[in-house]
Model the fold of this input.
Amino acid sequence: MRKSNRVAAGAAAWRVVYEGIRPGKPSLWARAGAIPRMLGSRIRGHYTQLPASRLVLFVLAVLYIASPVDLVPELFIPLFGLADDAVIAIWLASGLMSETERFLEWERYGPQYVQGHVVG
Done:
């Protein structure tokens, strides 16, 4: 991926992240710090609210954004070449925002926290 594509994708993802931080919600730093804990808890089988399929999609999205190979090259179709990177970055950022918020709530309330509610 060209540097300009990474910048465009990063800017689009940053807008999603910036708009997702509201008063009373976890900060960006809290969410970023939760990612390694969330992955570790998921891999160890403690945190089961993150489906393995979604985890795989997150990893694939990071690899796609970081990869120098593009499925839609800018050389042939400039607009779509930029758009695919931005769409992936936005999807990844918004997905991580929601997953980390759910994980932080799970950490706070424990395993009885399921789908936005404390059960039991």
Observations:
- Strands lie at 113-114, 117-118.
